[in-house]
Amino acid sequence: MATILNGKELAATLRAEQTEEIRKLAPLAGRPPGLGVILVGDDPASHAYVKNKRNACKEAGIHAPEINLPHDTTRETVMEWVDKLNADPRIDGILVQLPLPPHIPKDDILLRIDPEKDVDGFHPINVGRLVIGEDTLVPCTPTGVMTLLSRYGIPVKGKKAVVLGRSLIVGKPMALLLLAADATVTICHSKTANLSEETRQADILVAALGKPLMITKDFVKKGAVVIDVGISRNDKGKLVGDVDFDSVEPIASAITPVPGGVGPMTIATLLENTLKAYKKRNHLS
Ligand SMILES: Nc1nc(=O)c2c([nH]1)NC[C@@H]1CN(c3ccc(C(=O)N[C@@H](CCC(=O)O)C(=O)O)cc3)C=[N+]21
């Protein structure tokens, strides 16, 4: 029987801690923290995520103006909104919801965000700082995974970690964070040969490939800690991860469910990053 790593419950605990901290800091700063969210187009999944973020911010006392732009918005208009949020003294964090429509070059937009307000940690300056090992804003999903591991007392130092996936948003920063925590890290991806041989070495296995239910017990060593970052919808519209939970749970020592695992931790970390940027900008500790 594996320990179920309850991200939903832990995220609620973290948000309560953040709410308390904001209540204490706002009078010192003379204002609450601010997170500006830019959403382009009408992708229903993106709108649902942004709604979750808005509710979490509201609950915690974060000022969170939302810029909703139509699908046919130009690159220049999005740039102007980023500039406006960069210059706004009440804004500590900026999030441009991804994916953007194909006619808007993502890299140009992310490069425009003030790195000190880059609560997603996607700006090349922040990616570089993470590689160097400086304290900086780090992408929310992998940071949330590290928080989940540490709050459940799961040791990382000296362990063999295998990360499945090499995206800018999850795989690469996940590998760097595990490395910084002294794990021995392997990154696997779609071209990896003998994938299950690699994954069966893992003490900690992080699945972020976007292939629903692909990871069965054949990919997992007995007693491994299994973290599922996948979020896909099946034909019934139900949320499923990259891990076949029913197959893997009996042999894992700990495992995250989907939903209720990594997803809620992502949002709690977005608030944490906003708070971090706010404290730095206001010289509060
Ligand atoms: N600039 C940017 N930053 C992001 O961090 C970002 C993004 N764009 N685009 C989309 C992805 C996806 N993402 C999720 C956040 C929360 C849940 C989450 O809370 N999931 C719940 C379930 C939600 C549901 O039921 O739909 C759970 O897993 O329990 C999932 C996915 C952030 N992303």
TrEMBL record:
Transmembrane segments: none
Positions of the Tetrahydrofolate dehydrogenase/cyclohydrolase NAD(P)-binding domain: 139-281
A Gene Ontology molecular function term of the record: methylenetetrahydrofolate dehydrogenase (NADP+) activity
UniProt xrefs under Pfam families: THF_DHG_CYH (PF00763), THF_DHG_CYH_C (PF02882)
Keyword Transport carried by entry: no
Reactions accelerated catalytically: (6R)-5,10-methenyltetrahydrofolate + H2O = (6R)-10-formyltetrahydrofolate + H(+); (6R)-5,10-methylene-5,6,7,8-tetrahydrofolate + NADP(+) = (6R)-5,10-methenyltetrahydrofolate + NADPH
Domain named Tetrahydrofolate dehydrogenase/cyclohydrolase catalytic: residues: 5-120
GO cellular component: a single term: cytosol
EC identifiers of the protein: 1.5.1.5, 3.5.4.9
Functional pathway: One-carbon metabolism; tetrahydrofolate interconversion
CDD domains for this protein: NAD_bind_m-THF_DH_Cyclohyd (cd01080)
Positions contributing to NADP(+) binding: 165-167, 231
GO BP terms: L-histidine biosynthetic process; methionine biosynthetic process; purine nucleotide biosynthetic process; tetrahydrofolate interconversion
Xref: SUPFAM superfamilies: Aminoacid dehydrogenase-like, N-terminal domain (SSF53223), NAD(P)-binding Rossmann-fold domains (SSF51735)
Domain of life of the native organism: Bacteria
UniProtKB keywords: Amino-acid biosynthesis, Histidine biosynthesis, Hydrolase, Methionine biosynthesis, Multifunctional enzyme, NADP, One-carbon metabolism, Oxidoreductase, Purine biosynthesis
Subunit description: Homodimer.
PANTHER family: C-1-TETRAHYDROFOLATE SYNTHASE, CYTOPLASMIC, C-1-TETRAHYDROFOLATE SYNTHASE, CYTOPLASMIC-RELATED
Family note: Belongs to the tetrahydrofolate dehydrogenase/cyclohydrolase family.
HAMAP family: THF_DHG_CYH
Function: Catalyzes the oxidation of 5,10-methylenetetrahydrofolate to 5,10-methenyltetrahydrofolate and then the hydrolysis of 5,10-methenyltetrahydrofolate to 10-formyltetrahydrofolate.
Protein's name according to its UniProt entry: Bifunctional protein FolD
Native source species: Leptospirillum ferrooxidans (strain C2-3)
Lineage: Bacteria, Pseudomonadati, Nitrospirota, Nitrospiria, Nitrospirales
Gene: folD
